[in-house]
Amino acid sequence: MTAPVSPLVVRGPAELAEAAASWTAERIAAAVAQRGACHLALAGGETPRRCYQRLARPPYQDGVRWRSVFVYWSDERQVPLDDPASNYAMAKAALLDHVPIPADQVFPLVGDPTPALRRIPPDDRGWPCFDVIHLGLGEDGHTASLFPGSDALNERRAVVRAIHDAPKPPPDRLTLTLPVLNAARAVLFMVQGASKRDALARVLRRDPALPASQVEPVDGELLFIVDQEAFGG
Predict the structure, then answer these.
(1) pLDDT surpasses 80 at 233
(2) Contact between residue 3 and residue 35 where contact means Cβ atoms under 8 Å apart
(3) Could you identify which of 70, 164, 214, 224 might form a hypothetical disulfide with 7, taking C-beta atoms 3.0 to 4.6 angstroms apart as the criterion?
(4) How far is 113 from 195, CA to CA, in rounded Å?
């Protein structure tokens, strides 16, 4: 059985955003220093939004080598890019409009993401090897758009899967698959609020029934930054 995970527990949403922004900036710096670029997959949701808003302010706004960052998403709703439900639209307003990432280094999942994902250097198994992937956690234990019971959890060939029956609206989504998540160099879960407490406890003890428990980077780092309400302290 996989060993339980010990999270970084912080006081509340502001502290979570600060810790997540700092962690992300450090991993971007390391990737750029070691490999000349950082391939970063962003997440949707209110908790990641706070992290992105923090990254858009000093010291990260000017202190991160944004021109060397290539931006992707861990999942997306199948909606227009300017739709309020779009993860791309959220990240654009919170972060991308405020930092100097070249427009041709930003790759929404909507459309055909395959050519962009092929630009990411692969690991020794041939999967795109992201430097950093951001994830959230649903009350049902889902992460990205990988939901409990979905056959997408068994995907072992595709990099991206279309989801047409998501239990949360909208039902049509795109998601990175588990092999891609687990090929990353660093994966960060950001979890906030008492409504996530039960799911978080189960994921931290690696309950295999929950999709988020199946995120275990093969050769990379896995961190949960959670607030006290989510952790139960």
Answers:
(1) no
(2) no
(3) 224
(4) 33
pLDDT, mean of residues 33-39: 98
Q: Domain segments of the chain: what residues?
A: 8-231
CA 94/CA 60 separation, integer angstroms: 13
Task: State mean pLDDT over 73-101.
Answer: 97
pLDDT band at 112 (very low <50, low <70, confident <90, very high): confident
Task: Look up residue 88 and give its two tokens.
Answer: 């791309």
Position of tokens 């780092």?
221
Residues 6+ apart with CB under 8 A from 221: 185, 186, 187
Distance CA(45)–CA(14), nearest Å, equals 15
Per this entry, what is the length of the chain?
233
Residue 4 has pLDDT above 90, yes or no: no
* Amino acid identity at 96: L
Helix then strand then coil, in percent of the chain rounded to 5, is: 35, 20, 45
DSSP element (H, E) containing 180: helix 178-181
Reference 76, options 183, 200, 162, 134; nearest CA is 162
| Omega prior to 58 cis, within 30 of 0 | no
Contact 212, 199 (CB under 8 A): yes
175-179 long-range contacts, Cβ below 8 Å, gap at least 24? 175/74, 175/75, 175/76, 175/144, 175/145, 175/146, 176/41, 176/74, 176/75, 176/133, 176/144, 177/146, 177/152, 178/146, 178/153, 178/211, 178/214, 178/215, 179/125, 179/127, 179/155
Distance CA 189, CA 18 (A): 14
**CATH architecture classification, 8-231:** 3-Layer(aba) Sandwich (3.40)
